[in-house]
Model the fold of this input.
Amino acid sequence: MDAYQKTTLDNGLRIVTEKLPYVQSVSVGIWVNIGSRDEQDAEAGLSHFIEHMIFKGTEKRSTLEIAKEIDQVGGMANAFTAKEYTCFHARVMSDHLPRIVDLLTDIFLNSVFDEANIDRERQVILQEIYMTEDTPDDYIHVLFNQNFWPDAALGRSILGSIETVSSLSRHDIHNYQERHYSPGSIVIAAAGDIEHQAFVDLVGPAFAALSQNSNHRDRRPPEYQSGLRVTSKDLEQVHLCLGAPFPTALDDARYAAAVFSTLLGGNMSSRLFQEIREKRGLAYSVYSFLSSYMDAGLLGVYAGIGAEHVDETLDVCLSEIRKLASESVTPAELTAAQEHLKGSVVLSLESTDNIMTRLAKNEITYGRHINLDEIMRAIDAVTPDHLKKLAEAHLDPNCLALTLLGPIHDPEPVAARLCL
Done:
C-alpha cells in the first residue's frame, strides 16, 4: 500500500497522510489556504492575529491548560502565518496522537477569542512588529516586498502595521473566519507512525460537521515596481535587497528557477558568495532567495555591507546577472547546483514536520501529491539553455527593483548604476 493517502470529506475538507514506519512520532498540521494576501487593507495582520489567538483559550481549556497539555505529552505545538496559508501544527509520540488531535481540533474549532486576551496579545504582536523593525536584516525584506509590490496585499508585512493591529477587534476575527475558514480551504496533514483510516476516523467527525460556505477570497496577480527605494537609518551597515519577477509556484520553470537561485547565491560555492564574500570580503551575509506564490514570484539577492561598499557590491550583482543571461553555465557548475538542490530536498525529508508540510503545501498548491522521484527528475532535467532563457526573460538589469536600508544619504550614484 502506498505510504501517501488522501481522503476528501463530503464538505470538501481534505486529509492527507504519509506513513513512515521508521519513526515513533507523528507530525500533524491543520492548514488553511488563507494568508495575509487575503486581507483587506484595514485587516492587515488579521491572519497572524488569529494564529496567535488560537492558543489563548477555548470553551473547555484555558491558555494555561492548553500549554500544560502539550507539555505533559512531551510534545511541541506551534503555528505560523504566510502570505497564502496559515498552519496550526504539533508533533508528539504516536501514542499521544488522539490527545493532541483533540487539542488541535478544540483550539481550531472552539477558540473563544476573549476580549481581555485579544487586548493582551495585541501588545505582544505590536512588540513583534517593533522587534522586526529593530532587526535590519529582517526589516529589509519587509521593505523590499512593500516596494516590489507596492499596491498589492502580497507586498504587505504578514504582521500588519501598528495602525491596523491596534484597531483589530473580536468582531473582525469572527467576520474574517466566517468569510474565509471554509472546509474547502482546509487541509489536515499528518506524517509519521500513523494509519490513514484511523487518522481519518479520529479527525473526521468534528471537521465533517463544518458547513461548506463560499470563500470570498479575491486574489489578483500583483504588479511589481522596479527602481530604487531607500530608507535612511543610522545603522552600522547598509542592507541591500535586489530583485526581479520570477516564475510562480505553478510555472513549469519553477525547478529551473530553484537551480538558478542556487547557482547565483544559494550556497557557499555560488557566484555571489564567492565574488562578494570570498574574493572581495565585502559582506558576511550574502545570498539569493526565491519567493514563489500561486500567481507571482520573485528572485531576490540580499547582502549586508558597509556603506562604502554599496556601489561595488551592486556592480558585482549586476555583473553576475548579466553573465547568467549571456553565457551558458558549465556542465560541472550545473551538476553541482543540481546535486546541492537534490541533497537539500532529501535531507529535509528526514523530518516528520517537513514531510507533513510538504504534503499540505502540495495539496494546497497543486491539488496532488508530488513524490520524490518526480522532483529529482525535474531538477535533473534543467539544462544550461533553460537557465540562460530564464535570465534573458526575467533579469533585465534596467528593470530590477532595489531597496536599501541604512546610512544612505545620497542615493543618486546607486540609482545611476541601475540604469546601466
